[in-house]
Specification:
The chain is an alpha+beta fold. It is built from 9 helices and 4 strands; from the N terminus they run ααβααβαααβαβα. It has a 4-stranded antiparallel sheet with strand order 1-2-4-3, sandwiched between helices.
Length: 208
């Protein structure tokens, strides 16, 4: 299956089957998101895997009637970090040294640039930036799922503050960005057979 076949196959699932994804499949999908592009490679977010039914029952009242939050196999929460600063860059530098076996002194100019770029942003701008990076990872997860014939439904329509409270995100220095229900589509989900509605290439793409 090529990439276009995979993307044509995927849709926002309305109803999931009771079938569970195995742990290795979920780990593979989340690991694909881990490898996603990110501004400066800083990855200012965390990815939560919510398998617990009791926790999802607690989240359901804050999900605007979206039963799939409870019925899907696994619920994934992308959560942006709320404290962005020099330490965000320092964490990356530590990983850079570990992975590439290159002393930080060799990228000191780049490190300074990253810290200055973040320092120039207001707190609101830093938060918006962190959420944007989480959305990039979300897109990678959806594409990976489609390529593996795993169904998904991304959602931003939920009570973010309530989700943060139920999941204890504030204590982790996080706030929710988006959620994704993962699993297998139900045979009763009539949306699966409908043609995908997207604008034509020439309507969407501008070549300059």
């Amino acid at each position: 299956m090529n990439i276009h076949e995979a993307l044509d196959w995927r849709y926002a699932v309305r109803e999931f089957s009771p079938e569970k994804l195995d742990g290795q499949t979920v780990e593979t999908l989340v690991d694909a998101a881990r490898k996603s592009a990110s501004s400066y490679g800083l990855q200012p977010y965390k990815i939560l895997i919510v398998e617990s039914k009791p926790v999802r029952k607690d989240l359901l009242p804050y999900s605007y009637g979206q039963q799939k939050v409870l019925d899907c196999s696994h619920l994934i929460v992308f959560a942006a970090q709320t404290d962005i600063g020099d330490h965000t860059v320092d964490r990356y530098v530590t990983q850079f040294e570990k992975i590439r076996s290159v002393p930080a002194a060799e990228i000191s100019g780049y490190v300074t640039h990253m810290k200055e770029a973040l320092a120039s942003k207001s707190q609101a701008e830093k938060q918006a930036w962190a959420h944007q990076q989480a959305y990039i990872a979300l897109g990678t997860l959806l594409t990976a799922a489609a390529s593996m014939r795993i169904d998904s439904c991304p959602m931003t329509g939920f009570d973010h503050n309530a989700y943060d409270d139920v999941l204890g995100l504030a204590e982790l220095g996080l706030e929710s960005s988006a959620i994704v229900a993962l699993g297998y589509r139900s045979a009763r989900d009539r949306s699966s057979g409908l043609p995908k509605v997207r604008f034509d290439y020439d309507d969407l793409v501008i070549t300059m």
